[in-house]
Amino acid sequence: MSQCFIMQPATEDILLKVTNVCAICYGDIEVGDPIYYDTQKYHYVCQHCQELECQTMNDQCEIVEDEEGGLFC
Ligand SMILES: [Zn+2]
């Protein structure tokens, strides 16, 4: 679990006032689902997308592109 995301259960309040879909995959979010607030992009994502996003981030929550064989080949 990374510090880049704040996990919280989806409340009716969030679903009504902020979003009721994941910001990445647009999957429906139901009350009580675990959702993750992305502190870098300021939106909510589902658990699945949070896990995928975390795999591309370093400890500073920066997106790390795979540059092997890129610039210096
Ligand atoms: Zn998602």
- The sequence of SSEs as H and E is EHEEH
Give the biggest sheet: 3 strands, antiparallel
Based on Cα principal axes, name the global outline: elongated
Helix content: 10-25%
| Total count of strands | 3
**Range of strand content:** 15-25%
Account of the protein in words:
- This protein has helices at 12-17, 47-55; strands at residues 5-9, 34-38, 43-46.
- The protein is an alpha+beta fold and 73 residues long.
- The chain has a domain at 5-55.
- The protein has a 3-stranded antiparallel beta sheet.
- The chain is elongated, with a radius of gyration of 14 Å.
- The termini are far apart.
- Zinc ion binds next to strand 3 and helix 2.
- Zinc ion (ZN) is lined by residues 22, 24-25, 27, 45-46, 48-49.
Structure summary:
The protein has helices at 12-17, 47-55, and strands spanning 5-9, 34-38, 43-46.
Protein traits:
single chain; alpha+beta; 3 strands; binds zinc ion
Topology:
Blueprint: E1 5-9, H1 12-17, E2 34-38, E3 43-46, H2 47-55
Antiparallel strand pairs: 1-2, 2-3
The site of zinc ion has 8 residues, from β3 and α2.
